[in-house]
Every structure is written in structure tokens, then in C-alpha cells.
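Lab notes, practical 5.
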Amino acid sequence: MTGRGQLGPYAHAVLGVVSVGLAAAFAELLAAAGQWMGLLRTASSPANALGEWFITITPQWLKNWAISEFGTRDKQALLVGMALTVTITAVLIGLLARIRISVALAVSGVLVAGALAAVLSRADSRLIDAVPAVLGALVGLLVLSGGGRIARAHAVRRPSHVAAVPRAVASGPETRAAVATTAAAAEAAVGAGRVPVAAQTGRVTLHRRRQFVRLMTFGAVVAAASGALSRLIPSASEVEASRARIAIPLPGDSQPINSGGATPASTATSPLRQSASASFAGQSAIAPSSSAASSSAPSTSAPSTSAPSTSHGSAAPEPTTTASTTPSSAASRTASRTAATGSTTSVEFPAIQGLSPFVTPTADFYRIDTALSPPLIRAEDWSLRIHGLVQQEVRLNYFALMAEPQVERSITLTCVSNPVGGHLVDNATWIGVRIDRLLQRAGLLPGADCVLSTSIDGFTSTTPLSALTDGRDALLAVAMNGAPLPIAHGFPVRMVVPGLYGYVSATKWLVDLQVTTFAKDSSYWTSRGYAEQAPVKMSSRIDVPAPYTPYSAGDLVTIAGMAWAQHDGISAVQVQVDNGSWHPADLAGQLSIDTWRQWRHQWKATRGSHIVRCRAVDTAGVVQDSTAREVLPDGATGYASLVLMVT
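Output from the prediction step:
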């Protein structure tokens, strides 16, 4: 309490937090309910709108730092940061209400205007989508105003005409009765308004205090209930139900995988297939593995692929050319892919703990995008428009797309934000329709050089037209690892284009393809300084052992990892200890030039601290670029390394 007759700063801080929390939670509840009933779009969520607005205005260096520090948990980090920011803002609003309620209401109004601007700035928003934010703000402002008035309620003071009873004599029954009568008279005087504010003490009435506590408790409970209900309303569950009804068509053009061991659960035949027993390439999405192979221990005689003669020997050549400067024709790539597909060589080494699997489980596949929460659209509501520099516009709904000939391919995707040695790269099995087939149907006009793809949430990407028409397996994917696309990875439909970084090729929640030119249109990331042409740079990493793992002199250390050069293919990986010679590593089989490749090398440990490096060589004999470069503008380069301690 204070001498001014009002509750203290802690109570006002609670008032601010409850008021803002109630406004936000009630708005989210209305947005979720409106989306469920089909009245509102995903833009109506103020939390999502503010989060994506924050992503948009965040400086590029800060985005890169967040991705490098938090990886695929960057969205969680953003949510935590937003929660802290909102909480601090709410506390400040509450403290302002202690000074002057009109100032607190004015500041709150400015924040509401910002939230409305964020909602209406979304590409898919309409004016009606602002309703949840408006109504939520009204509820919060009412609580803030009411709580502020209660907190500043007049305190009780004995009127001047009522004589005070000395403490020394206030002990007998008659005296206590007199004191009670005096207090009652004072309460009555205050209630009747006969006592001026200036003549009151700093003691808030018990009645007013209880009113404040009840209001704050009620507001907090309603806020918590609204937040919980907004997550339970079946907007997301409707989309999941739509996804569960999908029967993935059997692809007519498939790519069997020999995993050399137990079939990963994520790639097993899905019960959502049209036939429970039928699957890819005849009978199985993954070719039956040899029981002997799955039980045998790794050895130097395990299946491997030889590298070019220039890359092997006691000392491999120093890199003189980078992968990005060596072109490879579409014909040679197609020939390489054909030779690799169906190989009986295992694409995985058995029993190397910590080595990434060839097919990444869906739950572990990286997700980097600009959506704070995945956009929600049912398959029944999805449609695609292909337009722009074409002879005729093409429109497809989901089931028309599913009726097109389906292709199944394993393709490795890489995020441009992946640092050297990083894990923003994964491999999955995709089913979908070839993009060049649909573009051919639309008929391309002269002069076009790119395709501007748009997500349902307004995200855009510009993909070189040549990469979609040169024969590579560029797909509109509807399935991932044997099941319909997860919502977080683009359900109902996303793009998958081998050989390009995701920011120019992997649009999720796709709804629009516009054939255009780079001169006319830019996209989300290219307008922020990233390159228009973004082929994936050849790279490699070390998965095992972990850095600073202790070993004893004489131990045989298995060093293993992954290497990738999408749409060029990996022919060799080399390992260097300290600054010694480069030595060839064993390679697992190569499914195609569009997938990554496992490698391993055994080294006999010697005493001391050692730095281990790795580098890759592509199918044209080009050695991985050793120059250390940052992510911006078109991907990091350099050699991955780790430190080993041997005693």
C-alpha cells in the first residue's frame, strides 16, 4: 500500500499482465473458432501475425544468428522471446495505470493498432480477420480500466468531527465498542461521499481489496481457459482429419532403396496407401535387406565405391576448383542417376552409432521457414494456379493433382542457412507430380526465366525455370517417407527441387506458380540479399565421434559422416588428421546424384590433441571448396573439423 490510497506496484503489474493476457487469449480463441467455422483465415490470429511481422522486420544478421544458435528450434526461441516481450510490456502498462489510467489505456490502444496492422498486412488477410483482435482488445481494456479504478479506490479515514480514542485507554469493552462505532461511521461517510479524497488515509478498504483480487482471479482463469480452448478447437484437427483421409497413389515411376539393414520405420509401407500390400516399385518402398549385412560388423571390406584415381593415394590433391564452377550436363546427370538407381550396394553402413541414417525420419527432418505456426488448409480446399508467361492458365485441385502420374524419389534438401558441418540438411523419400509436366501443359512463352511460387501464407520463392525443365526430378510433392505430407512440412502440397537450396526451391503450403522473369519479380529471401541462383554447394560433415571424445593411444577410431553434392553426386570423401595427408574414406552406396552419401574412415589414435577434417569430391572430380565463407548470400563453404583428445 501507499500513502496515496492505492494498491502498490506489484498489484498494478498483475493488473497489466492479466489484462494483456486476457486480451491475447480471448482474441486467439475467437480466431480459432472463426477459422474452424470457415469465417476467418489464418491471418486472423494476432499472435501468429505479430510473430511473422517480427520475423519480417528482424535484421538478417539476427536471423542468421538465431538459426545458427537454435537450428530448427528457432521458432520456439522466437515464441519465448515474444512471451517475455509481451510480459514486460504488460507490466509497464500496469505500472502506467497506477500513475494515470488514461495513459495506460492510450498506450494499450497503440499496441492494439500495431496488432491490427500486423493482421491486415498478411497476404491472405481480409478486413473481417481483424475482428478477433478488436474484440480481444476491448475485453482487455475493460479489465484494465475496471481494475485500475478499483486499485485507486479511496481509502478510509476517520472524519475530522469524530474524536480519536487514545490507544492507552482503548482496552475496555466499552472503549472497543466505541472504536467499532467510529469505524462504522467512517465507512458510512465514505460510502455516502461525505469524506473528500484528500482527507483519507493510505489504507485501502478490505472490500475494495477483495474486489480487485476477485477481478484478477477471474481474468486469469478466463485467459487460461481461452488459451487452452483455442488449442482444442478443431481447426488443426480438421486438417489432420483431411490428411488422414488421403490415400497416397502408387507411383508409376519409383526408386527402390537398399538400406543394407532393417527398414526405417518412417519409410515402411504406410497404411494410408491405396493397397496395404502394394507399395513402391512393385512390392516394397525399400528393397529387402540382407540379414547377413544387417548383423555383420563394419570392416574395411564393406561395400564402398572407389573415387577417381586423382583423389586417392597417400596424399590427395589440394582443391583447385570449386563445385559451383564446374558445369555438368543434364544428359550426364541423368546417366549417373540411372546407373545409381537400383544398385545392390547398401546405401547405409551397419552399426555405426551416431551416424545419420540415409533416410531421415520425418520427425527429425529439419524445418526452417518464415511461418510462426504452420498454415492450415484441408486437401479438399486446396487448389493450384499456374499462370503468367504461359499460353494457357492451368488450375488443379488436390484430387486432380493426385490423378496425375506420380513419381517417387529420394531427394536430399539443404537449407542455405546450414553452416559448415551443420545439420540443416536431410534426406527423405518424396512422392509427387513432375513440375515440368504441368509447365508443359500450360505452355511456356519466350522470355521467361523463373517461376515465382507462393505459399498460402504469402511466402514467395523464385526458382530458375531451367531447374524445373532440365529433366531433374523437380516435384510437387504430396507424400513424405510413405505418408501424406505432415502439416509442418507443407501439407497438402509442397515443392521439392534437387540441387537448389530450399529458399529458392522448396515452397511449402504451395498455392500459386507464376511463370515470370527475375527482372520483374523478386521473392522473400532474394529481396533480402540472397542470391537468385542458388545451387547447393558440395559439402561434407563429421557425425561421429563427438568433439573432444577421449581416446587412448592405439585405439582404432571410426570417423564417419555424410557428404552431399545434389545433382552432381559424390564420388569420394577424404579425411585429414592434423595437417597431414588426405586419405580416402569408405563410401556407402549412392542411390542417386540427388541424395547424400554416408562415409567412414578408421584411424589408429596417437597420443595428443588432434584436429580431424573431411572434404568431398563430386562425380566430375571437383574437390570441395576449402575457402571459409559465411551463409549469406548463397551458402557457406569450408571444411568441417573436430578435435579429438588421445591420452
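Observations recorded by the TA: The chain has a mean pLDDT of 79. The radius of gyration is 33 Å.
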